[in-house]
Amino acid sequence: MTDTAQSRSAEKPRRSILDTMEIDSRLMGMLGVLVLISLAFQIWTGIRALDTFSWNPFAWLVNGKFLSTQNTYNLAIQTVSIAIMATGMVFIIVTRNIDLAVGSLLALCSGVMAMMQTEILPHWLGLGLGSPLIMPIAVICGMFTGMVIGAFQGWLVGYQGIPSFVVTLGGLLVWSKVAYEIVGGQTIGPLDPTFLMLGGTNGTIGSTASWVLGAVVAVLTVWGIWASRRSKAGHGFQVKPAWAEVFLSLVSVGMIMGIVAQINAYLIPPARLQKMFTERGETMPEGYTQAFGLPISVILLAVVALVMTVVANKTRFGRYVFATGGNPDAAALSGIDTKWLTVKVFALMGVLTAISAAVASARLTNHSLDIGTLDELRVIAAAVIGGTALAGGFGTIYGAVLGALIMQSLQSGMGMVNVDAPYQNIVVGVVLVLAVWLDIVYRKRAGKK
Amino acid sequence: MTMASAAAPLVELRNISISFGGIRAVDNVSVDLFPGEVVGLLGHNGAGKSTLIKCLSGAYHPDAGEIWINGKKVAINNPRDARAFNIETIYQTLALADNLDAASNLFLGRELVSSFGFVDDAGMEAETRKILARLNPNFRKFKEPVSALSGGQRQSVAIARAVYFNAKILIMDEPTAALGPHETQMVGELIQELKRQGLGIFLIDHDIHQVKQMCDRAAVMKNGQLVGIVKVADVTEDDLLGMIILGKKPAHLAG
Q: Does residue A232 fall inside a structural domain?
């Protein structure tokens, strides 16, 4: 029971700065990749924008379009739907399962919500078109649909022992066709105006509220960092030096406010602004500008990511998800009901899929028949690029969100520099395999230490 | 049975049978266990020792037979029921989740929670540090996942779990199989200590020498059936070996 080699190396003075600050090296790596991708596309688009080629790197960066306020704004909006589902996929994969049906289920939830808001609620139930009740009721019905179907798939996996690959492969084929039948094989639109606020530029909170929200989040973050330090010190554990906490607090606040600043820098296009004034029967003052501010969909993603992180790290349910993934037998022998846990994890995935469905269909302003197609692969790729191990037991929510952002950045950047669609798929495929390979190398090295 | 005690046994397994796909893994076996006693379970691989004991720990549900604890008939349908009777199991395969740290494993299924219902990681780590300081003072790796621990350190976590939650009945399935000689000795000393505290211990082991040293009685199984229960003081190691291989009680006890 003793291990002298261990006691010698234990509690050794911390060496590197990253260790001292307890910063996750994986997080740093992912942020590094994101910065690299952004710079590469910024330079690429910058070179393309120049009339005559120049060797001046400064000119490349300044003329680049990738980091323009418009593109980063669009990037944020485009990432939301995949990122929300990716947070749920982390739990699925951590418990050694897979969900291939999310894209198909997204179509079904979108179809249910579209029918609710265009047919059932306004006409059959007589709420009338444009009633403010339509959006919440439609979204709740969609979430209920997602939860029930997710729970059903989870029941087949957990209680009946059918491999999740098979169950959800079946779901992939079934649910999108059920959706097709529900909407009668046609595009459903236009959707309810309140509902459209979930999609992106149709629902933003304005620049002032964005600053206030950013400030509140920044204050809470700093408070969280120091509360955690107090709790550790209260038990007499080793804590980071105070300068590291101050530095981390400053970086966190800087990043949060930086994101808000970037978002607020994107102004409503003059033509659209003009139209808004005309609709209100006013005339737009000369030189008037207004920012969109944070889109509701992005706030929704932030809330989902926060809640899922708390669930993963701070609740029994989250603990059991990881324990089951690490050693299902040990979890069962410890009294964890792993079958019921599987049902809950799939039901949660279903609810998140429905939220994504609302965001995706609101962004497109209608329910199209091909909505969600291939989303399951994007979602799984986002989770895996974010460091979720397919063997189970490991994965983080922030990793999945960053993974989704990396995927979307690649896709958007390649679109901007006119890479043909087939080549885009080749690049994304290579990046996926590369990310997993890097992850395996990283794990091996981390394990040897 | 052999113990002339007026008190009811801590555990009585009566006529337990369980089959898997037509094979009788355990066939009408009865074993009992008294407080402060270590009963060794011996037999070949596949003799049914682990299967029998998993009926007590709630991992399996017997097809027939009864489980009595402190003179009362009880129903154990899952590991949670077993825990409610203060039955703790230390498995051969070290039932730990490799990806979690020592504290998360120690409290797995019984986490400490704050008033908001969130798991109290700092509190659990503090408790884990306390209990492990007693069992294995050299244990330091509280932050690492248990996959980074040595066999002995992992076993300390498993044993700490049983000790922390006040086990009355301890099931140890080859607790020293993955350990070196020094660590094996530590486990041996710990078993004696727990015995003095009045715990009843079922010890599954292949090592006859060890059973002879640590146990008060030995129950030998072969092909799912009970060969016999003997006081280890009455038999030699060769007698025990004979029971395991031949499936017969030694001549001087057979009468």
A: yes
| B140–A10 C-beta distance less than 8 A | yes
Residue A103 contacts residue A372 (beta carbons within 8 Å): yes
Is residue A54 in a domain? no
Q: Where are the domains of chain B?
A: 1-86+169-255, 99-166
CA closest to B122 among chain A residues:
A232
Q: Based on the domain organization, do A236 and A307 belong to the same domain?
A: no
Q: What is the pLDDT of residues A272-283, one digit of tens each?
A: 888 888 888 888
Whether residues A217 and A317 fall in one domain? no
Q: pLDDT tens for residues A60-82?
A: 888 888 999 899 999 999 999 99
A186 & A311 share domain: yes
User: Is B140's CB within 8 Å of A7's CB?
Assistant: yes
CB contact under 8 A, A315 and B79: no
Residue B147's closest CA among B107, B100, B180?
Answer: B100
- 227-286 in chain A: CB under 8 A from chain B: 231-232, 234-237
Q: How confident is the model at residue A332 (pLDDT cuts 50, 70, 90)?
A: confident
Tally of structural domains, chain A: 2
CB contact under 8 A, A326 and B97: yes
Contacts of B179 in chain A (CB under 8 A): 1
If asked whether residues A228 and A241 sit together in one domain, one would say yes
Query: A228: distance to nearest CA of chain B, Å?
Result: 9
Using 50, 70 and 90 to split pLDDT, how confident is the model at B6? low
Instruction: Say what the pLDDT of residue A11 is.
Output: 44
- CATH classification code of B1-86+169-255: 3.40.50.300
B residues 159..188 contacting A (CB < 8 A)? 179, 182-183, 186-187
CB of B39 within 8 A of CB of B201? yes
Q: Nearest residue on chain A to B184, judged by CA atoms?
A: A1
Q: How far is A314 from chain B (nearest CA, A)?
A: 5
Residue at A216 is within a domain: yes
Return phi, psi of residue A155, to 5°. Answer: -65, -45
Separation between Cα atoms, residue B99 and residue B146, nearest integer Å: 7
pLDDT reported for residue A7: 40
Q: Residue A244: give the domain boundaries.
A: 205-294
Residue of A nearest to B179 (CA): A1
Minimal-distance CA residue of chain A relative to B99? A326
Distance of CA A265 to the CA centre of its chain: 22
> Is A336's CB within 8 Å of B117's CB?
no
Report the 3 state secondary structure along chain B. Answer: CCCCCCCCCCEEEEEEEEEECCEEEEEEEEEEECCCCEEEEECCCCCCHHHHHHHHHCCCCCCEEEEEECCEEECCCCHHHHHHCCEEEECCCCCCCCCCEHHHHHCCCCCCECCCCCECHHHHHHHHHHHHHHHCCCCCCCCCEHHHCCHHHHHHHHHHHHHHCCCCEEEEECCCCCCCHHHHHHHHHHHHHHHHCCCEEEEECCCHHHHHHHCCEEEEEECCEEEEEEEHHHCCHHHHHHHHHHCCCCHHHHC
What pLDDT digit, counting tens, does each position of A410-438 carry?
999 998 888 888 888 888 888 888 888 88
The verdict on A361 and A314 lying in the same domain is yes
Give the pLDDT confidence score for residue A317 in this predicted structure: 95
